[in-house]
Amino acid sequence: MNLQREMKKTLCILMAGGKGERLYPLTKARAKPSVRFGGIYRIVDFTLSNCLNSDIRRIYVLTQYRSVSLDRHIRLGWSIFNHELGEFIECIPPQQRNVDRWYRGTADSIYQNIHILQRERPERVLILSGDHVYKMNYNDMLAFHLEKKAELTVAGVEVDRKLASAFGIIGSDDEFKIVDWEEKPKDPKPVPGKPDMSFVSMGVYIFNTETLVKGVIADAKNSSSSHDFGKDVVPAMIGRDKVFVHNFKEANNEDGRYWRDIGTLDAYWSANMDLCEKDPPVNLYDPEWLIRTYQEQVPPAKTVSTSSHGSGLLNGTALNSIISGGCIVSGGTVSHSVLSTNVRLEPGSLVEDSVLLDHVTVGARAKIRKAIVDHEAQIPDDFVIGFDLAKDKERFAISPGGVVIVPRGISLG
């Protein structure tokens, strides 16, 4: 089997049009896939890097909600494909060719773009989501799909059962054929022998094109459908078609199973905090599986000592943290935090267990704990965030997990 040849017969469609309502207010001015993550990246970079590293060079990105920043990021950071060799990445907003409406769901977005499949005529379609953080070689999944002679293969992964109600729960037989599917149940079924874990869909699909087209056309005719793959199309195929599950393993790490759906503020914060660990569960420094992005031209980050009135010499320090280019920690302290580009900390300031997006300024002696501070927020001198949640609630949104959300562009002075 020549996987490289088979992958060239596979078209990738990346879903990037969701509102990301549970990630609000970070998605107030941008689509969820274009939210900054891990200092220098956008969330979508992880899925696109998986594609590039898996030698997938024909990619359509389906956009819809507030897509300007996403379109710009892909244009600046991902225009690396050779069109003369048939390679491309293209952003496609709703065309409304066969219906006069926006996308109603993931399946409907494919239905409204059936003309692409008719034009490209791929043998298979790889459907991905633009809001997950993971490292996956899609060639492994394709090999499994071909070996099983499947009509649909779904990528699955074990997650904590407490979190599993947000996903489709998969049951399979000894041959990995899916025999049961329950979408977002209140009481998820555990993995046999692992009562604290559930086996869930990652929202990664390989369809035979003919099967996909039949499925979305039938779904479009169903007036009671929500037009979603996980809720409608896939469950309708169970027991009727050859539907299999591929057990996810991390690229370049046989024992790795790190996959995060960055769908909520708590999940976003937690995944960023994972990167600050001594041995992070997802390795950003693997030269064999680089995560690509677009970076603006900024000077290197630096920490400096500063004299402060009444406090003597204050050393700028950063421990167990990611500090992006353009950041200046001037006599402040950063601990277990992620700083995006061009963040400035003034003397005596403290940032711990927090995510600061680009162009944030933290004033002298200000303190921030367990917070997400959005783009261009200005924190004044002596201001305190995250130490008194009752007081914070008067000014900010607070996630169910107790993360304080400081909105974009706010000036608290």
TrEMBL record:
Residues 13-277 form the Nucleotidyl transferase domain. Pfam families: Hexapep_GlmU (PF24894), NTP_transferase (PF00483). It catalyses: alpha-D-glucose 1-phosphate + ATP + H(+) = ADP-alpha-D-glucose + diphosphate. The record marks Q64, W102 as: Could play a key role in the communication between the regulatory and the substrate sites. The keyword Ubl conjugation does not apply. Its EC number is 2.7.7.27. Pathway: Glycan biosynthesis; glycogen biosynthesis. This is Glucose-1-phosphate adenylyltransferase.
